[in-house]
């Protein structure tokens, strides 16, 4: 069971890396274009692995702070919602990429510094 937990943590960190990479790729892309698909893929991977880790917590003797996880979930839903909403449009506002990047940094900061 420990291997499964570590694999999920690994995939969760890869999802975070995809979000950071999407931010960097989006900064180099033409301004006003829709967000790249990495935002949705990274947010989806983070969501699935995070929820699975939380559900496997009792089986792996992990004790998680549910308030922290709830706030991180809200931030992730905001990232995914903004990315999905503006992926469907032809043009996007200039504030979108810095906002998505800031939300990713906020989520990573919550994970690291909230103990």
UniProtKB/TrEMBL annotation:
Annotated keywords: Membrane, Transmembrane, Transmembrane helix
Top-level taxon of origin: Bacteria
Residues annotated as transmembrane: 6-25, 37-57, 69-88, 95-114
UniProt name for this protein: Integral membrane protein
UniProt source species: Actinophytocola gossypii
Taxonomic lineage: Bacteria, Bacillati, Actinomycetota, Actinomycetes, Pseudonocardiales
